[in-house]
Amino acid sequence: MSGPTTAAPSAPPAGPRPTTAAPRRGRPPRARRASRLLGRTAVQCVLVLTALVWITPLAGLFLSSLRPEGDNASTGWWTAFSDPSRLSLENYTALFADGGLVDAFWNTVLISVPTTVLVVGFAALAGYAFAWLDFPGRDAIFLVVVGLLVVPVQIGLLPVAKLFGAVGLFGTVTGVVLFHVAYGLPFAVFLLRNYFAEIPREMLEAARMDGGGEWRIFTRLVLPLGRPALASLAIFQFLWVWNDMLVALLFADSSAQPLTVALQSQMRQFGSNIGVLAPGAFLSLVVPLVVFFAFQRHFVQGVMAGSVK
Amino acid sequence: MAHTHTRPAATARRGAAGANPRRRAQRRRRLLAVAFVLPALLLLGALVVYPVVFSVGRSLFDADGDRFVGAANYAEIFRDPATLTALRNSTVWVVVAPLLLTGIGLVLAVLTEKIRWATAFKLVLFLPMAVSFLAAGIIFRLAYEQDPDRGVLNAVVTGVHGSFEEPAPYPTARARTGQGVSGPVGGPYTTDRTHGAGEGALLGLVGVAPGALPADAGEASAAPAPGPGEVGGTVWLDFAPGGGGEQGRIDPGEKGLPGVRVEAVADGSAVATAVTGPDGSFRFPDLAEGSYTLRLPAANFAAPYQGVDWLGPALVTPAIIGAYLWVWTGFAMVLIGAGLAAIPRDALEAARMDGASEGQIFRKITVPLLAPVLTVVFVTLVINVMKVFDLVWIIAPGPVQEEAGVLATRMWLVSFGGGNDQGLGSALSVLLLLLVIPAMVVNVRRFRRSRG
Question: Is the four-CA dihedral B118, B123, B125, B126 of positive or negative sign?
Fold first, then answer.
């Protein structure tokens, strides 16, 4: 499920085609074909319906974010279709004018970008070392790292909060980043080590013969070869941290809080502030959605591989 | 960074090392390797390994951390009602969500094989994976809104409900007290005395909402006269607009109430039903000789159906699991779909040639061949479901937060959210770790096998 063998969703071949020539046992061909056609129509209907069900909640959020507060308080978003002229970007302008959520948006960026860079960087170094360099206890240490994969974030909250409190990192963006990096590493190292391990030995030997130092081999050979895995990992890691609420809820104070934390504090008054919550939630969605559509393939691979966490 | 780190190692000035260039090179390589893994190991050690050790130790002390209490915190997990609720909910989550997701994912993966727009479909279902649980929470808080005018789910539910069952005609109406008809508020209302053939019963109601009176409601006829041998009467609004009129009597200008269901009751059970006409009159033409009490069943006065209380204490956990399904179904489907694509086509074609039905192929070939993939999906989901926090935190409204609680939210509340019992909180986080360990074993095993 990880490494170069990660399965990607690709368009599967279209359904079975009825072959006409071969005589078949069972029902006569014509009845068979008719029932298959009927079945296929039913399948189409079920899937169209499913897709609609999946899109509707998202569409609802988007429409709600465009409606005046008063409308949201009294009617559902689906009534917006009867008078589309009432939709406007007013909620968004108000959101940007207020500034609080904009600051939170930048905090989200400030947290997720460095985290992604650090996780990918540290994990690439370690992954290469675990795969191709010799040092005492290498395999045992690697197994421990793999074991750390499933340590839930929850177990780190309290001890790390005390630790950060002692060194003055509690409440800061740096603290949040360090925590995320630490809990992102086990999976990242696991993924990259497995990927790098499949680089053909001869390639590395040849590079060494040519007198390339390990650092040179790492930057000129391993990193370029590992690009697909690095991209998937980066996307997954970025998304994971961008969407995180729990860690920041504890470690970020009000000046460092990301969008998710800023929005969750609004949930208490849910119902009266959809004009803030809906556009805010959509703002937090935009970046992941752009990433999703821009890097579909890597995105799916990253999420698939990262789900081990 | 590691680059500059390694320079001093490269120029190791130890004389002994210089004697053997091969050994020196080897040592250099080793130091380099250590430099490569060091940043990761330092962070893991300080922020992951140390916290595990700390939490295990902390869980053996009391709330303030002064007194060693042994396993008392762990015993408390099974004693504290709120924590027990969380434990129960987590069990429901772990059993229900992965099973449903794997099942739905499997069915959808098989179905998408039969359509041309499979890629688009997968894209749509996978989309929620990009959405944060916070946003998903807000989305579903909106959808689960109780008021059918605002929550889309209840709008659908009440719509479907309404198309199967006529809404009650006069939800706010009640019998005029002291005028021969009585019953509890909301019905059913029964006549105090019995009525025989040819007698016109008068059933006066008040409190009909202004909008509820249909346009075709005619004036109630002052002297309802059922035909010979018939039991009958009038249900009317015992209220003359503009005042005046006498209670319990049909006065000019008072309207009949069409569409009211009336039952003729003998010996406590309804023997016939009639529905009032535009002038409020009703008749029972075919009743056996005798006398009957007349009853207006409660269905006439039922409050309009308000939909399902999704986020009430009873349904909140299933409702949140529903939101979780929305997020994760795409994941299960795509992963299973990838496994499906790897199944040899020949096996399926051969079975089809032999006349196997699609159902048989699914059960006898597809599912067994997919078993390893299904296991991966299931185990992965169990790990993820065990740690669910954000969705519950966001979707469950304040008052039902405790009923909806799971281990992760409970752990948070106990440690940081007012509970401030870090002993119990640590015990909960250790329990969470212990519960995930079986999955860890599966993970490591799978990894070892893939290496060997």
Answer: positive
pLDDT at B444: 62
CA distance B211 to chain A (A): 20
Provide the domain limits for residue B143. 80-155+310-420
**B339: chain A residues, CB-CB within 8 Å:** 7
Which CATH number covers residue B415?
Answer: 1.10.3720.10
Backbone angles phi, psi at B329, to 5 degrees: -60, -40
Is the CB of residue B337 less than 8 Å away from at least one CB of chain A?
yes
- State the Cα–Cα distance between residues B79 and A90, nearest whole angstrom: 51
- Give the CA radius of gyration of chain A: 26
Reported as a single tens digit per residue, the pLDDT across A132-176 is: 998 889 999 998 998 898 799 999 999 999 999 999 999 999 999
Read off the pLDDT band of B86 (50, 70, 90).
Answer: very high
Give the gap in angstroms from C-alpha A151 to the nearest C-alpha of chain B. Answer: 6
Number of independent structural domains in chain B: 2
Residues of A in contact with B422 (CB under 8 A): 158
Going from the C-alpha of B57 to that of each of B63, B66, B67, B422, the distances in angstroms are 13, 12, 12, 11
Residues B138 and B184 in one domain: no
Same domain, B179 and B296: yes
Rg value, chain B, Cα: 36
Pairwise CA distance, residues A33 & A124, whole Å: 54
B144 and B212 share a domain?
no
Sheet holding B200-206, edge to edge: B174-175, B200-206, B231-237, B281-284
User: What are the chain B neighbours of A58 within 8 Å (beta carbons)?
Assistant: 127-128, 131, 139
Distance (Å, rounded) from C-alpha A202 to C-alpha A39? 53
Question: Which of B183, B386, B394 shows the shortest CA–CA distance to B293?
Answer: B183
What confidence tens digit (pLDDT) does each residue in A37-84 have?
777 888 999 999 999 999 999 999 999 999 988 888 888 888 888 888
- B314 and B295 in a common domain: no
* Domain assignment present for B446: no
More confident residue, A259 or B248: A259
Residue A264 or residue B17, greater confidence:
A264
Chain A residue with CA closest to B387: the answer is: A152
Angstroms from B153 CA to nearest CA on chain A: 10
Asked which of B278, B301, B324 is the last residue of a domain, the reply is: B301
Query: What is the band of A18 on the pLDDT scale with cuts at 50, 70, 90?
Result: very low
Note the ipTM here.
Answer: 0.85
Per-residue pLDDT, B233: 84
Q: What is the mean pLDDT of residues B177-198?
A: 79
A159/B443 CB distance under 8 A:
no
Residue B55 lies in a domain: no
B297 and B178 in a common domain:
yes
Contact A215 B123 (CB under 8 A): no
Residue B447 has pLDDT above 70, yes or no: no
Cα gap B132→B391, rounded to integer Å? 9
Of A24, A135, A156, the CB nearest to B355: A24
The answer on B333 and B287 residing in a single domain is: no
Comparing CB atoms, the residue among B129, B143, B340 nearest residue A60 is B143
B130 and A299: CB-CB below 8 Å? Answer: yes
pLDDT digits (tens, 9 = 90+) for B360-386: 888 888 889 898 889 888 888 888 899
What's the gap in Å between the CA of A194 and the closest CA on chain B? 8
Question: Cβ(B359)–Cβ(B366) under 8 Å?
Answer: no
Q: The pTM is what?
A: 0.80
> How open is the CA angle B91-B92-B96, to the nearest 5 degrees?
120
pLDDT exceeds cutoff 90 at B94: yes
